[in-house]
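Course exercise 7: structure representation. Students receive a sequence record and must write out the corresponding structure in token form. The form below is the worked example handed out in class, using Chromosome partitioning protein (390 residues). Read each field label carefully; the graders check that inputs and outputs are placed in the correct fields and that the protein name is recorded exactly as given.

STUDENT ID: A-19
EXERCISE PROTEIN: Chromosome partitioning protein
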Amino acid sequence: MNDSTNGAGTESAQLSPESGYAATSSMPTDLVSDTPPVATSPTIGPSTPADPSVVPPPSVPSAPSVPVDPTGPAEPVVPSVPTEPVVDPAEPAEIEEPDLTPVAPAPAVNGGGNASSPKPRPQFPDPPPLESHGPARILAIVNQKGGVGKTTTAINLGASLAELGRRVLLVDFDPQASLTIGLGIDPLSLEATTYDMVIDRDVTAEDIRVKTAIDGMDLLPSDISLSGAEIQLVTEVARETTLARQLEALRPEYDLILIDCQPSLGLLTVNALTAADGVIIPLECEYFALRGLGFLVDKTIKTVQERINPRLKIEGILATMFDMRTLHAREILEEVVGRFGETVFHTVISRTVRFPETNKLGEPITTYAPNSVAAEAYRQLARELVGRLG
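STUDENT ANSWER:
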């Protein structure tokens, strides 16, 4: 009995797939270990009889699984490319001063037209130290257009001249008192200012003079009261020479006196031009500033030269707030140089965020950022000015 059962089991296990399935699932595994795998039918519950006429489809062996890298194929290695340095948008990058002088028209080429040809910018050496001081040259920093850098030039040019061993007196002749505030002095704390100097005959320039934080540079401060001086001076005799009479007493003590004028061509500005030996005109490289320059030179300065102060001369036109990245600024500068030639300073003051910072802190850029491009530009201007004055 056992032998027949085992023989039947063996025979069932060796049937081909076409002959059906084994009648029992309790076949010993050691008897079928060498036979190929046979597909099995779906699971049939104990209550459902097996149907021998239903032949399931042959099983299809599945493809071997291939491990897949979840990260995907490696990206090709791209050589790193140098990028521009990251600049904080809250603080604009300082604009480098141009390496060339303002572009002036070159001689005509082959008899036709003018070609623009840049000239290498000259370098001005430090002047020799002075053995004595005075008498001072008085220079008025004038432009009837506001916001062109008059006060910034007065502060930083004065400080740069003091570094060269010159004794400098700054005169704040603007009711806004920007020069006074820009040097860290509160106008409201002063007992007397330039207003008292020009209105009260008992107050002299020496009475209102104050020391600044820069060694060798003093200040005649101003305040808002000066705005009423023009009306009060109208009835005065020789009202155009009021400032000149006051500064004359201080000439022997200084080498240079710089007057910061208000942005107008009123009586205060005429007083400054009458007292001055020369004029420095800061010029923003912008169209409207260029239009005003012609009126200042051809009308105001020429009228003062002819009627009041024949010794007055233009010492130089200073390009300020220059942005060499813009075509408009370069065109304006080229036009100014083409018209005024060597009157234009070789030094160009570029636009930088450092200047507003120094005005707020009340010190010149030569002490706030002594190694900056702007500080070196004003030192270059001071050397160039001393070279022009001789």
